[in-house]
Amino acid sequence: MTDERILQRAFRPRARLLQLLGDQLIGSARLALFELVKNAYDADASEVTITFTKLGTPDAAISIRDDGQGMSLDVIENIWLVPGDDHRERARGSAVRSPRFQRLPLGEKGVGRFAVHKLGDTIRLVTRAEGQPECVAEFDWDRLLQETYLTDAEITVRERAPEVFSSGTGTLIEVTRLRSEDWTRGTIRDLYRQVTSIASPFGDRGGNFEVKLEVPEHPEWLATLPGLRQLLEMAPYRFEFDFDGSRLHYRYEFVGIPGVKLEGRISEREEVHFQIPPADEPDDLDPIDEPRPKRRTRMTADPSTLEGIGRVSGKFHIFDRDKKVLPNYGDTRFLERFLNQNGGVRVYRDGVRVYNYGEPSDDWLGLDLRRVNEPTKRLSRNITIGVVDLGLAESPGLQEKTNREGFVETAAYERLRRVVLGALWILQVERNLDKERIREVTGGASEVPQGLAGPLTELRRLARENSVGDVLEPTIRRIEEDYQTLRENFARSGVSHAGLAIIFHEVERGVRVLTGSINDPSMTIESLRDQAGQLQGVLETSSQLLRNTTTKPGSLRDMVRTARDLSLLRFRLHGIKLECPALEDHGPDATATFASGLVLGALTNLIDNAVHWVKVRHPEPGERRIYVNVIPDYEGGPAIVVADNGTGFLDDPATMVSPFFTRRPGGSGLGLYFANLVMDLNEGRLVFPTMDQAEVPDGYDGAVAALVFGRV
């Protein structure tokens, strides 16, 4: 028989636990004040005032006063003094709203109130609930920490006749013996920017809620701070969107720029097929032996996208920091400083900010990273002031982190990011149309491709991490050298920057596919080596744009057959029905003179566009249709026609064939430009006829494009 001891004991938390809650769960003193302001919001306050007094002296103090519901002695004893109490989480889960402003509580975990212990060692709490005496509680951490266990660290709470809140309810917290003496002009101004942004500048979905910050001994510290609403009027581009799961409604407005003679423009639409970036970016343009598992093909958002998130809306003001535009707004340093401090995309739930989205250190949408290779086309945080609005009751899938620095990065959070990025893509497209108009007026330069440094650096990193660096490094080095040589040759030959961008587009796409393959555990070393060789071959193929490519007569039917054969796998993967009369017995044919390699690239670009847009309009396979045919005589020459039953074109032909223009999220905007350039080089043209003009049968009501050749 063995000796055995069985004990049953309760946890005995140390008294220092409360101070640790404030220290470890709250990142900074400024964030601690932010949490206390959120508590005031939960208490149904309409106003909260933060006051700093006697800063720089031993008597420095901070007070936080609100006009909320206040607390009774019972609430203090059974809720406020109970770490981790879940009454707000339960109220939120049961959709119990506050009586005055019908708010759902922001707090969940019952620890936010301990943020006050991050600020100082002596705390005095004065509070009064409706119809109750005033309650006063005092915390002296020097005394409390002398006790070993939390159960021995007693706090005295007394009731008295109202003195501070004699004519109403509310809570006052006074903090002395401050733990941080770094309350300078700079930190106070940073705090002002943070706490005044808790309530959305674009609306009051959470009811009236105002935050005031006062430094009586230094009023000049806050006197010159810019007001957000005042400066928003200086943004030339405005955008609003609302997505309910079924339809996206958006309104874009270009209001003009002082001193630039350019009319404003408004674009307002309702989109049934709202494109969002896929979770795993598909790239089926490269030959593969069989479908890859778990490849995302759905291109649009639907009600399931908003599961656990609820309706998503947003408002954005976009500024222009172009050197030929910014001086038109007067004090450029003032505006740039404002944008550097306030730029970004904030998130609000029930009109109250979710910290720390939109802070200078936060780029939750990856805007700056996406802008690296297209600095004049993509949005960045330092020109964007935007908010995303959510409803608290409708977004249970978005849970805030315990340290109050954003949402837990769940699947719902990722879907929220994709919805916002999809809306921002539309804004980006509309803005770029006006940016081009501005460049035409001011004489600004078009964008120059930035090169492959970023994508290749990422490829190298992943190759090393996956132990295939030795296999891929020789090819990566060769790609760098060949690309640089091509870039120099382009410069000497006088070919446009857009021509160079085509090569960058093709190579960057290959880099992206190879990067994805490295992360695919099913890919063998030999497969990676083959893909790297194909990527190197892209540079050789692209260099045809620099050579006098040989043209010779050829059959358009044969060209269509080659393009069809290259695309058969894609059609099967995506459930697309192809109708191609030219390849039927006795189908139409014509002879034209062209450089076959370039024209094949142009035709496959048209097919690529058709594949994308039928997937957008028809998320599920079954109704996707593409039509390809040869017209022996179309307005003076033979033509190859590509039509589909997708969403159709929204823009005029001149815009569609301009470099870098695209309504496809993540697209380069070079497909139609490339096709147009190829037809120019082959003495033909790219046109966009009607379905009747292109002799397209019934059943196709999307886009139609035609490659028209000269006669032999």
TrEMBL record:
Name the UniProt record assigns to this protein: histidine kinase
Keyword Transferase: yes
InterPro entries attached to this UniProt entry: 2C_sensor_his_kinase, HATPase_C_sf, HATPase_dom
Enzyme Commission code: 2.7.13.3
Origin species: Rhizobium terricola
UniProt keyword annotations, A-Z: ATP-binding, Kinase, Nucleotide-binding, Transferase
Coiled coil: none
Domain Histidine kinase/HSP90-like ATPase: 602-688
GO cellular component, one term: plasma membrane
Group of enzyme by EC: transferase
Region feature (Disordered): 274-302
CDD domains: HATPase (cd00075)
SUPFAM superfamilies according to UniProt: ATPase domain of HSP90 chaperone/DNA topoisomerase II/histidine kinase
GO molecular function terms attached to this record: ATP binding; phosphorelay sensor kinase activity
Reaction it catalyzes: ATP + protein L-histidine = ADP + protein N-phospho-L-histidine
